[in-house]
Amino acid sequence: MVMRHLFIVSLVLLSACASSRPIEVHTTADSAVLANAESVEIRLANFSFKPSDIHLKAGRAYRLVLFNETSGGHSFAAPDFFESAQIAPADADKVSDGTIDIAGNATETVVLIPTTGTYDLVCGHFGHAALGMTGELVVD
């Protein structure tokens, strides 16, 4: 069963690489809304996101605090999530093709307003998703 899961995850990652597309980042200048952003801490550990299932409300501003608690690099890759969200102009450059890279023992923050949907989350570093570094963003 584990081998089958690894095979499926590998196929998904391979197809994602083959069909990668530039992600357009949408920004918002509503500084009053962004100033009251609710903080949500997400820890990146050895091959896991904590929590791995993240629930947000559509239209509400959030400050995602991404803390990499390992010495090696990780990424927070959710292309569809970032493409549909409105991102604070000051944070737009942190998102590249739907991914935020976080160096070892470092923290990155991004302020955004998400839209309704269910979005896949993976670490884009080679092999990390296959080892279980996956999650889901649910925006109601």
TrEMBL record:
<keyword id="KW-0732">Signal</keyword>
<dbReference type="InterPro" id="IPR008972">
    <property type="entry name" value="Cupredoxin"/>
</dbReference>
<keyword id="KW-0479">Metal-binding</keyword>
<dbReference type="Pfam" id="PF00127">
    <property type="entry name" value="Copper-bind"/>
</dbReference>
<dbReference type="InterPro" id="IPR000923">
    <property type="entry name" value="BlueCu_1"/>
</dbReference>
<feature type="domain" description="Blue (type 1) copper">
    <location>
        <begin position="40"/>
        <end position="139"/>
    </location>
</feature>
<feature type="signal peptide">
    <location>
        <begin position="1"/>
        <end position="18"/>
    </location>
</feature>
<dbReference type="InterPro" id="IPR050845">
    <property type="entry name" value="Cu-binding_ET"/>
</dbReference>
<keyword id="KW-0186">Copper</keyword>
<dbReference type="GO" id="GO:0005507">
    <property type="term" value="F:copper ion binding"/>
</dbReference>
<protein>
    <submittedName>
        <fullName>Copper-binding protein</fullName>
    </submittedName>
</protein>
<dbReference type="GO" id="GO:0009055">
    <property type="term" value="F:electron transfer activity"/>
</dbReference>
